[in-house]
Structure formats: C-alpha cells, structure tokens
Design goal:
This protein is mainly α and 468 residues long. The chain folds into 3 domains: 90 residues, Fumarase C, Chain B, domain 1; 212 residues, Fumarase C, Chain A, domain 2, CATH 1.20.200.10; 88 residues, Ribonucleotide Reductase Protein R1, domain 1, CATH 1.10.40. 63% of the residues lie in helices and 4% in strands. The strands form 3 sheets. A two-stranded antiparallel ribbon has the order 1-2. A two-stranded parallel sheet has the order 3-4. Strand 1 and strand 2 form a beta hairpin. Helix 4 crosses helix 5 and helix 8 packs antiparallel against helix 11. The longest helix is centred in the first third of the chain and has 36 residues.
Length: 468
C-alpha cells in the first residue's frame, strides 16, 4: 500500500479495510479534468504571487498536462488504492517531476480543492442538461405547431372534462420544462463563486490572489467566507433538486404517453424502435421507455433526499460525511441525462391518432360546459343553465348518445332558448376555437404561446451557449 500524503502524523499504517471504506477514487475520478485545471491555475497564481518560482509552476503545469493526456488516452489508469482523485493526481505529478510537484499543494487544502472540482464539474453538467432540455423543448413545440387544430379531451380526475388541442396539451409540458431551464440557469448562477483559497476552513497566511484564481477558472468572484467555502453543498443540492423536478415532469409526461398508447385510449402509437414486446404474448407492444422514466424518477428523488439528510446535521466546516455528496448527485444527473436522450426521439417518432382523439371528445360530454355557456349567452343564469345541461347529460348517458345527437325538439323542451345554432356551438372544434383567452387552447392562442415559448427558449439557448 502506498504511503498516504498525511502519513507523517501517524505511527501505524492504515488498515486496508479502512482505506477501502475511506476511498472515493472509484467515483470521484470522473472529476480529473476539473482537478487538473484547478491545479494549473492554482500553480500559476502561486508563481504570480511569488509563493513558488515560475520554473516550478512551469514544471507543474507541464506535468499536469501530461497526466491529463495519459488519462485521456488510456495510458494512465486510475489507481484503486488511491484515496481520491486529488491525491492520485498529486502523487502521479510528483512521481513525474519530483520536488516541484510537492509545492503544488501550498496555500490550499483538499477541502477547498474538492469543493472547487465538484462545483466546476456540476457547472459543466448543468450546461449539458440544459442542452438536452432545449432539444426536448424544440421537439415538443415542433409537434405542437403541427397540431394546433387537433382536438382532444382535456381531463380532470382522469375524467373527460373539456375539449383542448394536442398542441395545447404539449405546450403545458413545454411550460414546465421552461421553468426547469430557468431553475438550471439559477443553479448555474449560484455556482459563480470560487471556493479555492478557503483552504481547510480558515484561509491562509500566504499572500494569495483569490480573485485571479476565480477569474481564470471562470467564476465571477471568490466565495465570501472561508468556512462556507469548504462546507457549502447548496449547489449540489440545488442541482439534484432541479434534476428531481425535471424527472417529475418527465414522469408525468411518461404516464400520459403510457395511457395514450394503450388500447383504451389509442391517441398515439409509439414507433417500434421505442417499444418492446413480450416473451409470451405476441400481440404486446409495451411502452417500456416511458415506464422506465417513471420508475427512475423515484431514484432521482431518492438522491435528493439522501443529500438533504446527509447535510441537515453537519456542523461547520468540512466533515467526511460530505464525501457522500458525489455518488448521489452524479447518479441524479446521469439518470436525468439518460432519460432526456431517450424521451426526445421517442416523442419525435410517435404517431398521433387525430381521429381517435376527436372521437373521444364526442363520447365524453366534453362540450357540456359549452352548452351551458350557450344558454348563458342567451340570457339564462349560469346555475339554471348548468342544471338543464346536467339533466340532458344524464339522459344521454342512459340512452348512450351525445349531446350533439339530441334532436332540437328535445332541447327546446328543456329550454326555448335552444336554436339550430346550438349544434355548431357545441361542436368540439368550435368549443376549442372559441377559447381565445390568453393561455387557452384556441389555435390562435396556442400559436401566440408557441411564439413566446420560442423567444424564451432562444434566450435560454443563448445563455447556456456562453458558458464559463
């Protein structure tokens, strides 16, 4: 077993079981790029401030770049006996360049180093997630633009309620995901303070330049308090929280996909490439992609819960419990990205059964409110109109007919206010097109919403394209 960097204080070698228990290299090795980048900038700052020589800084940078190159090419494998990615990189560097490598850790601690690496890593991941959400939004709005006049039932309590359009329904999800993009933007902005230079918890006596380090690493400023700098994991929790909410929205959409492609609905049909069969039932076409999204949502919510419970009782500053932050947030982000990359093409390739959606409207009395509104517009109080329409619905349920199938003479028995124009008023397409209020399902209203969504999405795309 190789000697630990902190071995000078200890007289006995660490038990192998403790080393295995304590080690994080198996999961934090993914942050090697961020770790090396942070170390290069730290070495430059040390040299700039006269804390180490320029010659040593050059050797450190050259050595670190060679380590990165060898990791990327596969020439250098991560040592499973290493405690973490920070010690692995530093040990490899020192083995390559000698004494100069031992100067790298001047004026920093692993406490601020790991906070930096994780913040830089998640900042990159937030950008990647945002790009995938933007692709999903483009898919949703493109499908919606083709279906502004595709009438379908809207539901409450999973009961047919009022007619909407498929475009209107999809735009509801587009609005959810737009809010998620705003939360991702907020998470990115909250990561704009650099923890490097906080050291273990109390800063340093060396004349460091934290603003230089922060700017070179793409941060707006150094964090304002060294205790908070090493113990803050709000940015981890916030990233996991946005991931959990995004997965919740994906899960709701997945649930509707599952319902819509069932024989009971048959509103859509998934492409064969995004469905699976049964080992015993040859007729089956299962929406496994959507079901897995629904199932994986619980996993991401669990990751968020693990982070919150881990942090809730920790005193300042750094505690080893915080090593548990990485696996949870890595899993949350990895799972989210996997779902996003699968859901978008699933939606793009699905077939929309417009006639089945329209037929469901005609069988579900979704035009009942419009019949009541028809009478109100002719002068009847709403509650009276509501009761008359409810009585007619009950009659239709018994006879197995729709409101639009009732003869005019029967309607006139209920109220003399009914005329021939009632049939046009309660036609599902009319019901939809008349709902022109802002945010409503009328084609013109949805087209306005799509324009606004397009503008907002363009702004989000521009923000995340800037990067740091």
């Amino acid at each position: 077993m190789s000697e630990k960097m902190w071995a000078g204080r200890f007289s006995a070698q660490e038990d192998k079981r403790v080393n295995d228990f304590n080690s994080s290299i198996r999961f934090d090795c993914r942050m090697y790029k961020q770790d090396i980048k942070g170390s290069i900038v730290h070495a430059r700052m040390l040299a700039r401030q006269g804390i180490i020589s320029g010659e040593d800084a050059d050797k450190i940078e050259e050595g670190l770049l060679s380590v990165m190159s060898d990791i990327q090419s596969g020439k250098l494998a991560f040592d499973p006996a290493a405690e973490d990615i920070h010690m692995f990189v530093e040990a490899e560097l020192t083995a390559r360049i000698g004494e100069a490598g031992k100067r790298l850790h001047t004026a920093r601690s692993r406490n601020d180093q790991v906070a930096l690496d994780l913040k830089m890593y998640l900042r990159d991941e937030v950008k990647s997630v945002a790009a995938l959400v933007l692709e999903l939004e483009e898919a949703l709005t493109a499908i919606a633009a083709r279906h502004t006049r595709t009438v379908m039932p809207g539901y409450t309590h999973l009961q047919r309620a009022q007619p909407v359009t498929f475009a209107h329904h999809l735009c509801a999800y587009a609005e959810m995901f737009l809010r998620d993009l705003k939360k991702l933007k907020n998470a990115a902005e909250n990561m704009d303070e650099c923890p490097l230079g906080s050291c273990a918890l109390a800063g340093t006596t060396y004349p460091t330049d934290r603003m230089f380090t922060a700017k070179k690493l793409g941060f707006a400023r150094p964090c304002g308090n060294s205790l908070d700098g090493v113990s803050d994991r709000d940015f981890v929790i916030e990233t996991a929280a946005v991931a959990a909410l995004l997965m919740t929205h994906l899960s709701r959409l997945a649930e509707e996909i599952i319902l819509w492609c069932s024989w009971e609905f048959k509103f859509i049909e998934l492409d064969d490439a995004f469905a699976t069969g049964s080992s015993i039932m040859p007729q089956k076409k299962n929406p496994d992609v959507a079901e897995l999204v629904r199932g994986k949502t619980g996993r991401v919510i669990g990751d968020l819960n693990a982070l919150l419970v881990m942090m809730k009782g920790l005193p300042l500053a750094y505690d080893k419990d915080m090593q548990e932050d990485k696996e949870a947030v890595f899993d949350a982000v990895d799972t989210l990205k996997l779902c996003l990359t699968t859901v978008t093409p699933m939606l793009q390739s699905m077939k929309v059964n417009e006639q089945n959606m329209l037929a469901a409207c005609k069988k579900g009395f979704v035009n009942a409110t419009d019949m009541a509104d028809y009478l109100v517009k002719k002068g009847m109080p709403f509650r009276t109109a509501y009761k008359i329409t409810g009585t007619l619905v009950a009659e239709c349920v018994k006879s197995g007919t729709g409101l639009e199938e009732l003869p005019l003479e029967r309607l006139k028995k209920a109220s003399e206010l009914f005329g021939e124009d009632v049939y046009r008023a309660i036609d599902p397409l009319t019901c939809v097109t008349k709902r022109e209020s802002e945010g409503g399902p009328a084609p013109e209203a949805v087209e306005r919403e799509l324009q606004t969504l397009g503008k907002n999405l363009a702004e989000m795309k521009e923000y995340f394209a800037k990067g740091k």
